[in-house]
Amino acid sequence: MIRCDEVTKKFRKNGSEVTSLDRFSAEVVEGEFVAVHGPSGSGKTTLLLTLGGMQRPSAGTVQFGGRNLYALSPADRARLRSSEIGFVFQMFHLVPYLDLLGNVLLAAPGKKLGQAQRQRAAALLDELGLAKRATHRPGELSAGERQRLAVARALLNRPKLILADEPTGNLDPENAAEVIRHLAEFHRAGGTVVLVTHGSAADTQADRILRLEQGRLLAN
Length: 220
Ligand SMILES: Nc1ncnc2c1ncn2[C@@H]1O[C@H](COP(=O)(O)OP(=O)(O)OP(=O)(O)O)[C@@H](O)[C@H]1O
Ligand SMILES: [Mg+2]
Known about the structure:
The chain is of the alpha/beta class. The chain has helices spanning 44-51, 74-84, 100-105, 115-127, 143-155, 173-188; strands at 2-13, 16-28, 33-37, 59-64, 67-68, 85-88, 161-165, 192-196, 208-213, 216-218. The protein is 30% helix and 28% strand. Helix 6 links the parallel strand 7 and strand 8 (192-196).
């Protein structure tokens, strides 16, 4: 489903250079649940952004479903991203002035929202135990509720792949298990998951663990 060949990402800042990914090569096959481990700064977020078509590598290629992601036009890449990939970001990226339904619907492609999309958004909020709070704003939610909201948004377009960046980072064990349970359900239904995590909550769900250190993939 996704394949990275010799992916390198470098950042230049104030004359100094940081190598965030260093000749990273790996493949994730359809239906796999892959966990990514690594210390802070090892390149985990960079990897997810690169896999998701949101950050062009300095070198190397990323293939998604056989297509070279960064050879596509920005419009084609954006279309592919919104139809096939769901993101759960490390920092939620919720919009404070929209209510919960509005935040889920942010993921909807195009400008016109259909009734079907609204119904799906409402059904997802229900599934994630947030139905009663659909008209609240993210600021009124607990950390666990916010993270469940981010998962609902990632599921809206029925993606094939979910990229989740420490979705349980700020959660107590109970809420963390709940978020993992939803990702595991998506996986059981045939979805592919790449999950960045510090903790071990997800390890029992994962088919495979990739370990990063200083932008490099460590041999297992
Ligand atoms: N936009 C950027 N500009 C400059 N440097 C960056 C940028 N994004 C990431 N980096 C650097 O690349 C390295 C890897 O960052 P990344 O965010 O991928 O790490 P991470 O493994 O996700 O860390 P954490 O566990 O703390 O989230 C870090 O040294 C970081 O400072
Ligand atoms: Mg990160």
